[in-house]
């Protein structure tokens, strides 16, 4: 049987059969088989969201260090089929204190946070080597070698990734954003006076600022998480480290780059707060998304497993000549719609990018580029405490070249050590 016939048979399977098959597969396998065809892609990606919601998986935003930090739990809220993004929202909108000791207003403040999906675990790499090292006797392998194996092979970059909290000084907008390649987090800072008296932070009935807004306060604010938007690859990358993260809002970033290029801006930091704010609030791709949903038959299963109805393209809709001609015409009109959408950039964003062009590379991005140039996987950066302190710490006396050299030497040493340990433990 030819590969074309096999693909055709897979494409015409009933949606109920595909959903039943997906229910037996791990999430990582569901994510992989979505590449068979567009129908499977839409079904598989939405099914991942449904399973996450049904299993009540959460995202933990860990603010501060492990001993004295606070955790804000977020639950799945919605799935954006057009942008293929899952949005999480906190269970409670209660603001958490930013100070380490909530009872002491002069206590130090939290500066870092980590974002973990509940299904992420350590020791995701080479489980055979980790198991063999844990069960081996001390005569065959030393305690130092065991610790070395657990340090390197138990490393999950998703669990060690650390973010720096934005500054909470006075700003025009109360909303702040923290971003990465596969996520955007929205948070706000609320002062204790605002928590006790909601009218203290707003405006009066006639839209004049209240007198309390001009009163300076010395107490640090509270942190309130608004929402978290992530790509499916961000969720799966912490389960399987070989799954690469995809860019969140790629169309919006693409249009932003073209629009900035027309103003002579070719370099900018995509994770800076003004850029993230523009990406979040710029919904110029919504007309195209509505056009796409109107002229195509997306595979929606948001209401299928435990709810009312199922909306899938039928076999005749998918494979008839009329459907193919409609798909061709709709794809042409979609491309025209995308081209007609013009990016309108606010003057504040253009001024910010022009002023901060020299800051297009952060400490993190520079280290990542230097590690890749040295032939080292940039994901190992979060394995080392000195590198993590350099990126999100108060500052370091160690230069970038020294950080890269130490990481490169450690990885090369481990590469040779791993070969000898594998032979000693008898693992093929």
TrEMBL record:
Outline the extent of the F-box domain: 7-52
Region annotation Disordered: where it falls in the sequence = 312-339
* Chain intervals with Low complexity compositional bias: 321-332
InterPro entries xrefs = F-box-like_dom_sf, F-box_dom
Protein name as annotated: F-box domain-containing protein
* Protein source organism: Lichtheimia ornata
